[in-house]
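It would be a great kindness if you could assist me with a short task in structural biology. The full record is reproduced below for your convenience:
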Amino acid sequence: MNALPSHLREAYPWEGTFVDVPGGRMHVLDVGPRDAPVLLALHGNPTWSFYWRRLVEHFSGTYRVVVPDHLGCGLSDKPQDWSYRLADHVDNVLAVVDALGLSDVTFVLHDWGGAIGMGAATKRPGLARRFVVTNTGAWRSLRIPPSIATVKIPVFGPLAVRGLNGFARVAAWRATAKGLGPTAREGLLFPYDSWDSRIATLRFVQDIPLGPHHPSYTELGRIDDGLAQLADRPMLILWGDDDFCFTPAFRAEWTRRFPAAEVHAWPDVGHYVMEDAPDRVLPLVERWLARTA
């Protein structure tokens, strides 16, 4: 992976650390006072820690903001022979937690970060203090857009995603309601510049379990069943309703499972909530963190 160019470094100025996990090294931003409350932000597919750059900038003066790149994503290693299964992503996040000595964590979740983060929290309920949930899910579901389902088609999926970078390129315009500026677009696409570097982009889609035959069906069921033990934790739900993937039906399911959650939803915001509406999200998170301290 080439170094970030200077104009992207202006938007993403932090130097990360690396944590060894089975399969390689995970790149992790760890910014802010070490004795401050922890915000652990988990990205989805096809993004990376660059997606959370405004969260890091806004909160790292008073919080310890930790943002890993999942293995295969961002500036992390991209092994070609690793499993890329949900359970292993969960274990990697817990390895980061242990390596950095994190506790009393507020999880900030988006897209695949929801299943992975809730996977970690349901394995270690004592780790989780609060949750900020944005356009994600953490339970078994058959809701999958046809355009994403096509990526599961043998031959076509690898050629479209790894050959043409179709998944990340389409997301760069379809996952946002207002459109990405040139820096945001280039930054989100930067790590995915070759066949090998796009392996996780494909594997994440292939790992969506749509039936009991799938290797990750059991793990997602474990997470689904475990959510009830976290229902007493404070939750803030921030939702872009103009999302073709995690539609308002997913937001409704979160509120059903966490009826005490504070909920904000916007019809003019898409899947990339932090690209479309950081000016709405960040003040709401700041006030909610203060109220639930």
